[in-house]
């Protein structure tokens, strides 16, 4: 794929690619934050409507259609949770389950399609590492429907657990993306992966009246889902533009270099170390537990 890009697209000037990439990353971050803080007024115009239009008119291939459909269905259910048609905590538990499924899907793609054994092992550890996390919907105040806090946070029992998971996921997903896509699209995904981290850092100051954190890295998974959804419909709708305008030969060489076997083994070891650390810290800080919502409280009257 990388060699084909080099033959089709001329190398773009460094400044041009950098400015376009920065504008793209800043855009999906801003839109992702709006969709996070306003799951109804933000999700519908920013993610749901554009995604549906892309599915209808852009004629994506089957894999793209499956991915984008999955993402938009999850965002529609988020709106139901925001409106309290669905118990928000049920939605958060579902999100963590969906994260495990999504990781395993990519992991088996790495193992079966790309024969990337080292990153496949990282993916298996990452899926197990989800059990070190716990999610909660931030508030249940109906006033939050428009102006208040009405979103979910996902964290480990300590900040160290959360950070271990965030960086392990970012490294693993970066390797997967460079296996699956061209270098141009891989550069897009650098923005996909960095935007949630930048958003988490920029919201570290957010606390409620009691001093509890309502921003920071607890927002990372929500921002990851939002920016991936937004970037997803952009990627499908404007695929040719991104392939052409995000092509940068030095970056392509860097991507090819990271595919060397010894580096893949190093990345796998880093990921295993991060996830093992997260699980050990989780166990030593209360252990794993899940409080599932009873079925009779899933819908209305909870």
How does the SSE layout of this entry go?
Blueprint: H1 2-8, H2 14-37, H3 43-57, H4 62-82, H5 88-113, H6 117-129, E1 134-137, E2 152-155, H7 159-180, H8 183-202, H9 220-237, H10 239-245, H11 249-258, H12 261-284
Antiparallel strand pairs: 1-2
Helix pairs in contact: 2-3, 2-8, 2-9, 3-4, 3-9, 4-5, 4-9, 5-6, 6-7, 6-12, 7-8, 7-12, 8-9, 8-10
Commentary on this structure:
With about 300 residues, the chain is mainly alpha-helical. Helices cover about 70% and strands about 5% of the residues. It has one domain. The protein has helices at about 1-10, 15-35, 45-55, 60-80, 90-115, 115-130, 160-180, 185-200, 220-235, 240-245, 250-260, 260-285; strands spanning about 135, 150-155. Helix 2 (about 15-35) crosses helix 8 (about 185-200), helix 8 runs antiparallel to helix 9 and helix 8 crosses helix 10. It is globular. Residues about 140-145 have low confidence and may be disordered.
List keywords for this structure.
mainly alpha, 302 residues, 12 helices, single chain, two-stranded antiparallel ribbon, 2 strands
